């Protein structure tokens, strides 16, 4: 009898990517094996981990479900599951619009997926189970990590903010922090397996500690990461300007393995629009944070998120955003055209901006940021950088005989392939010879190649079949387990 296969399709933010690693771990723990690359629905179980933030998320989901319907008819026993934020939001309509779906589960009960699949198989009817609060902190679930050398580590779930453009806090719930000891134990376990880079993940990552009233908990966590032997790179995403304090800047500057990189969502440079968005900072405070970060870390690369065309945005408001971008000089920006998201306060606000006006402003912003990104990248020419070799970052590497990786500040670097064998996770020292707006180029011979435990881990993973679900996250407890907290989960744009 052949093994049952699964495929997980992920939409949305880093939280969903991390949740999908756990869904894969749960399925492998239940005896499934991952379907080959390019299976495109040809699996025994297909799971959609959905997003409710992206435009037309529901249309995309139902379009994909529709394409699987005839495949399911031809494949007896095939099951389809829908989870994530859209499932939490549209719990009652998914099986009505797509009656061939077997399981619908929410953001708070991803651990139930194998049970729900089995129940749907036995009872021969769809199972819809949406928990209203978190049943178990996600990091206590098994996981199948996508990378052998880099890993996400969740430090909190949920969000206490009420941004008017975002529906995710309503779907993921209030912020719930994970215990520091559990976070550090997970990181140590990952490093023991060969991981050399971790990214601390939270909806509002620098609000960590709000559960216990410790405003310096996040900076203390960063410093604790600096004491973990073998951990080479620490990153985090996404912080919120409201909670970004000087002790965090000091911890970043003074902890060698915390990388000089910061993603700080701006959303708008206009105080009027920031107020309408319920963003609890103003332009002056935002630029003040950027100034203090650069004073402490002159080489820091700072990226951001910006929304163009929020309801009520005037040309003067937009000019304030352009001014902020010029002052901040972001390395890069993720720019979005505002569009109505049902269920958000902004969806019913007066002053919705015509699509053609939003588009025109968006193009002006992109052109400005492109110019700044290129100018900032040109400053890297002539520098010597340590690049951690990445997997899948350079789409043209095969044709150009190059490899690709990330500099300490997270800039993408393409470099000439060294003569010696180099694996993802290894570190190559290169001299930058050319800059484009979105990448750097290092032509010529590498200055040094350092084979790492992370590279060993990648090599081992690719030489042997994946065994079991991978790392179990969270600390094992001795004696009677503590009751699970009645918490809620987290994921969206900060």
TrEMBL record:
Domain Radical SAM core: 145-376
Family: Belongs to the methylthiotransferase family. MiaB subfamily.
Catalytic activity entry: N(6)-dimethylallyladenosine(37) in tRNA + (sulfur carrier)-SH + AH2 + 2 S-adenosyl-L-methionine = 2-methylsulfanyl-N(6)-dimethylallyladenosine(37) in tRNA + (sulfur carrier)-H + 5'-deoxyadenosine + L-methionine + A + S-adenosyl-L-homocysteine + 2 H(+)
Residues bound to [4Fe-4S] cluster 1: 13, 51, 85
Species whose genome carries this gene: Streptomyces cremeus
Name of this protein: tRNA-2-methylthio-N(6)-dimethylallyladenosine synthase
Domain TRAM, chain residue ranges per copy: 378-446
Annotated PROSITE patterns: MTTASE_N, MTTASE_RADICAL, RADICAL_SAM, TRAM
Keywords on record: 4Fe-4S, Cytoplasm, Iron, Iron-sulfur, Metal-binding, S-adenosyl-L-methionine, Transferase, tRNA processing
Top EC group: transferase
